[in-house]
Structures are given as structure tokens and as C-alpha cells.
Amino acid sequence: MAETTVPTNLREDGDQTPVQSPWRLFWKHFRRSQVAVWGGIILVVFYLAVLFAGFLSPYDYETQYRRHNNHPPTKVKIRDRDGNWHRPFVYATEMVDPMRTKYGEVEDDTRYPIKFFVRGADYKLLWLFPTNIHLLGVDEPGHLFVFGTDALGRDIYSRLLHGGRISLSVGLLGILLTYSLGLLVGGIAGYYGGVVDNILMRFSEVLMSIPGLYLILALRAAFPADIRSDLVYLIIIGILALVYWARLARIIRGMVLSLRENEYVTAAEALGVPSMMIIVRHILPNTMSFVIVAATISIPAYILGEVALSFLGAGIQEPIPSWGNMLQQAQKVSVLKQFPWILTPGVFIFLAVLAFNFLGDGLRDALDPKKVQGDS
């Protein structure tokens, strides 16, 4: 029976070591960066949370509790007023100072324990399965406002989860559209050169010369202000892709100019392979390590672009939540001093952007060819 051999490298001391696969080399370098690993973990948690937003949120994002507007985060207790220990519970609250919007616990000693897998507002799990089961909640008149409520009495935690669906998905879909366009245009310009290259690159330079935020606002102003939020969502993705594809196209064009001189490209041309197939199947795949890193680092720009548009009133409109329009109430310092919990979406925006940057730095180092060759 023939024996299976493991590929080896001969070291300077004469010992042979197994050759590591590209995936193992990548993981070896990536896990060295603890901040990158934690960045990836944070993003996985964020995307899973918004994916199951209906299940995780105790209330519907549109439900208004008019008697509890600008309510601070609910205090969860494990000891009652007599000092006895209990499972986590809350007391009912009421407004005690309408002038300053101050709340206090009612005199009633009734405890409202936090329950799991409770029935509440109807929603569709994963947009497919109708249900009304929520992860946690309390019985009325108790309320569980994890991050407090906004000026209309809507639960910020529930709106944060549903708003994250828009703000976080804009980054992924925007990158997908932008990089598809940038790769195609850059690949065509770099491969064909000449007049085609000049026309495409001059057009991209014109786009790059216009300040991004002003171009985004100008393009958004071209559409009616009262269109449906789902159309606004698609328009925002299209606008961001139109603004950001040019810079990538120029970088890809430079890489293709170098890659098209390789022997495998010459061989494909000699065999009569169509030009677009050469670009898509033989040249552009060799840019993927750069594209993966660049895309990861670029996603925060799309998230912040949506946040800026919604914050300025040109993006997602009420009552549909996004992290941007949730921050509109935080425009006044006096409001922030009195109700600091309305800045909660800003904290999650900061964490998401930071996590993407950490993850991008880790991917860049892990995919560095010099490091891979040194350890292979």
C-alpha cells in the first residue's frame, strides 16, 4: 500500500517541518491580534442581535408609553424594600415631577419579576415566522426599559435593535455594491488601457474631487422627501456606492496593470479566452486579499454615511428607527444633560466602527504576504 506523505520544508538545520496551509497561516497570524479577535466577536454579537431583534426586544419599536416619556433605564433589583432577596424584579414607576421629568417608584410594594420567553407584540422571526414570543419582559404596570425611553415614550433598547438592522446592513450591502462596481470598472480600465482607461479614470477623478458629504446630500435632495422608508434605504445604499466606488476603481486599475503582464494572462489570451473572462476569472481574484481588508476597513464609512443622513433628516424617517435618526433628539446640550441615555445609539455606533477598524487591521496583518512567506 502506498504511503501518504506530508509536504515538508527543509530548514537550515536539516530538519523537515510540515508545510502549513494558507488558512492555517492566516489564522495563526490573525489570532495574535487580540483586539482584532475581540473586534470580530463584537461584530458577530451585533449582527446576531439585530438579526433576532424582534425576539430580543421586549417591546415593539413603535409602541409609545406616553406616561413614561424620557424615562431613565429601569432599575433591576434583587432585594425588596424590607431587605429580602428575590429573583430579579422591578417596581412600577410614575412621574413625580412633570416639570423636570423625574420618575420615582410607586408606594405599592408589588414586585414585577423579570420573566423569560414571554408573550408580547407580534413580529416575524427572521422575517418569515409569525410569533409573539420575546426573550424577556415584565407584567404590566411594571416596565422593563433597559436603556430608557425617548421623548415619545418608546423603548430605546427595542428601537436600538431594530435600528441596527438598517445601520449595520447598509455597510454590508453598500460595500457589496461599491466593490462590485469598483472591481469591474478598475479591472476594465487596467486591462484595456488607452482611451477606455482615460475615460473611466477621468470620470472617477471628477467624483473624487467632490467632497463626499456634500455629494451625498445633493444626490439625496434629488429624490422626494416623503418617499417610503424602504425606498429611502435602497437610495442611501445606491448613493453611498456611487460616491465611494471611484477610489477603489483607481487602486484596482493599478493592480490590474501589473497583473495583466503575468504569464497566465498571456497564455489565456493566446488560447482565445474572452477578455471579460480573463478579467473576472484570472486577474480580479488575485486582488482579493487587498479587497477583503479594504472592504472591512471601509464599512464604517458607510455606517457613518447612513447615520449622518438620518441624523440630518435626509435618511430613514420616523417611525422606522435607525441609529442616525435615534440621535436626532440629542442635538441640544440641555437635553443631553437631563436625559443622557438618549446617547446610547452613539455608543453602539462607536463600538461598531471601532470593531470594524480593529478587525480590518488584524486582517491586513494576517494577509500580509511577507509574514505568510516567512512562516510557511
UniProtKB/TrEMBL annotation:
Keyword Transmembrane helix attached: yes
Any one cellular-component term (Gene Ontology): plasma membrane
Residue ranges occupied by any ABC transmembrane type-1 domain in the UniProt entry: 164-360
Main location: membrane
PROSITE patterns in UniProt: ABC_TM1 (PS50928)
Xref: CDD domains: TM_PBP2 (cd06261)
A UniProt-annotated Pfam family: BPD_transp_1
Bilayer-crossing regions: 35-57, 168-193, 199-219, 231-252, 264-284, 291-316, 339-360
GO biological process: transmembrane transport
Membrane topology: Multi-pass membrane protein
Domain of life: Bacteria
Sorted UniProt keywords: Membrane, Transmembrane, Transmembrane helix, Transport
Subcellular location field: Cell membrane; Membrane
Protein family per UniProt: Belongs to the binding-protein-dependent transport system permease family.
Protein name, per record: ABC transporter permease
